[in-house]
Amino acid sequence: MRLLSILARVGLVFLGAVIITAVSADVVWEDSSDEEITTSDLASALFGDWALPLLALGFLMAMAMVGAAYLVRDERLVNLEWELTGGEKE
What residue segments make up the domains of the chain, in order of their start? Predict the structure, then answer.
């Protein structure tokens, strides 16, 4: 398990280095575009070309939120008894 954790961290550092290298390359920033993007263009790109990836991302985010809510619950017997009795001793 410890080896898997170390490999995951090394992989994330490697991925970060690759992303920084790709974004900071001169080729990416050489050609500036004279075309101005409007809000309408953004909306058509998001809801046309990127509709399925956005739907998948929303589904994954919803699953993560449900999982986090489940993990946060505290089901120890003391807390369950407190919820049932309102904190009053019998």
Answer: 52-90
